[in-house]
Amino acid sequence: MARILTITLNPALDLSVETPTLAVGEVNRTGNTRLEPAGKGINVARVLARLGHSVTVTGLMGEGNASSFERLFAAEGLQDSFVRVPGQNRINIKIAEAGGRVTDLNGPGFRIPEDALQRLEFRLAPLLPECDGVVIGGSLPEGFPPSGLAALVQQASRAGKPVWLDTSGEGLKAGIEAAPFAVKPNMDELSGLAGLPLTDMTAVEAAVARVHAGGVSHVVVSMGADGVLWSSPAGILRSRVPPVSLVSTVCAGDTLLAGMLHGVLGGQPDEAALTFATALSAECVQHIGVGNPEAPDFSSLLQRTRVQPWPGQNNTGEMPL
Ligand SMILES: Nc1ncnc2c1ncn2[C@@H]1O[C@H](COP(=O)(O)OP(=O)(O)O)[C@@H](O)[C@H]1O
Ligand SMILES: O=P(O)(O)OC[C@H]1O[C@](O)(COP(=O)(O)O)[C@@H](O)[C@@H]1O
């Protein structure tokens, strides 16, 4: 099993609310409601730990409401190496309507002290030699410069560790310039990078090629219900998800990323790695929270997930998604 270090710069408590339909501007009566420690690197870490890996979680953690995170880390067997900073971790609101539409309200996070990046780099120095791979996930808190994210990618790469990056906006642009091993944009993030709407697979492939041109070896594009496109030096693979009963897509991207690391660091053949990761992300959307590899229907989801080289015999790039 692998040793993985995940970095979350802007943790969040996810307040997930299920409601039949959201009536904006009115009183809504909700169903199932849950408050849970989250943030991209932390979510990825939870899935990897459930898959049997040894995971250390680091990044910046608001000390004002750190206790529920600390309880989660203890319960899930995650080694806590977060740098504490003054302030509260944000609360992100996720409203999941029946039918699967999700409205995300993601906060900006704490404002970081001036020495936060330096303290984090210092914290990473002894952790990096001890891991097999690094995940950097999520947005940047207030005052954290995109160049700081690039510096973290470079620090891990200099230590010889493959960096898997999942962020957005200016952080993603700056991170890509530092040439991480892999990135996992969703369609909105890839479209933001390309500066274009991505209306068909030709546009997706062109955007992916631009990311590779920056020195990124692996580009994993998560395309929601349209599955995943994984482009690597070995070629391009496309996965398709089985039909599922959709509850919430929150955490599906993080679950997919964890599944990819599980397969790639475990030395699985590419097709098997992508099938596993896609099926686990499909499992995730059936409920609130991260994907569960021990779910009773997971083996059936695995069997019904399809992976093919892209473009396949009957597919051309001009095809719609
Ligand atoms: N409606 C859905 N049905 C089945 N699987 C889904 C659905 N939505 C997302 N997924 C799976 O979860 C992955 C990540 O979801 P996506 O929404 O693309 O990422 P992100 O959460 O990062 O925005 C998808 O690539 C797909 O494998
Ligand atoms: O740091 P950001 O970009 O605001 O995203 C944080 C949010 O994304 C999540 O990690 C979920 O991400 P995915 O849906 O992409 O898997 C939430 O737990 C969290 O609230």
Automatic annotation (TrEMBL):
Residues 20-293 form the Carbohydrate kinase PfkB domain. Keywords: ATP-binding, Kinase, Nucleotide-binding, Transferase. GO terms for molecular function: 1-phosphofructokinase activity; ATP binding. One of its GO terms (cellular component) is cytosol. GO terms for biological process: carbohydrate catabolic process; small molecule metabolic process. The keyword Magnesium does not apply. It comes from the Bacteria. InterPro entries: 1-PFruKinase, Carboh/pur_kinase_PfkB_CS, PfkB_dom, Ribokinase-like, Tagatose/fructose_Pkinase. It catalyses: beta-D-fructose 1-phosphate + ATP = beta-D-fructose 1,6-bisphosphate + ADP + H(+). Gene3D superfamilies: 3.40.1190.20. The keyword Transferase applies. Belongs to the carbohydrate kinase PfkB family. Catalyzes the ATP-dependent phosphorylation of fructose-l-phosphate to fructose-l,6-bisphosphate. This is Phosphofructokinase.
